[in-house]
Amino acid sequence: MDPSPDEAAAQIEAQEEGGRRVLRASGRIDTEAAARLWPEAMKAAAGAPFAALELSGLKGIDSAGAVLLLTAAPDAEFRGATEQAAAVLERTRRALGTAPPVSAPTRWRPITAIGHATVERARTAVAGIAFMGEAVVTTLRVLTRPRLLRWSEVLRHLDEVGTRAFPLTLLLGFLIGVILAYQSSIPLRRFGAEVFVPNLVGISLLRELGPLLAGVVLAGRTGSAFAAELGTMTVNEEVDALKIMGVDATAMLVLPRLVAATLAMPVLALLMNVAGLAGMTLIMGTLGYPWASVQNQLQQWLSLQDLFGGLFKAACFGLVIAGIGCRAGLSAGRGPRAVGDAATAAVVGGIVAIVAMDGVFAVLFFRLGI
Question: How many CA atoms lie less than 13 Å away from 87 in the CB half-sphere?
Answer without folding.
Answer: 4
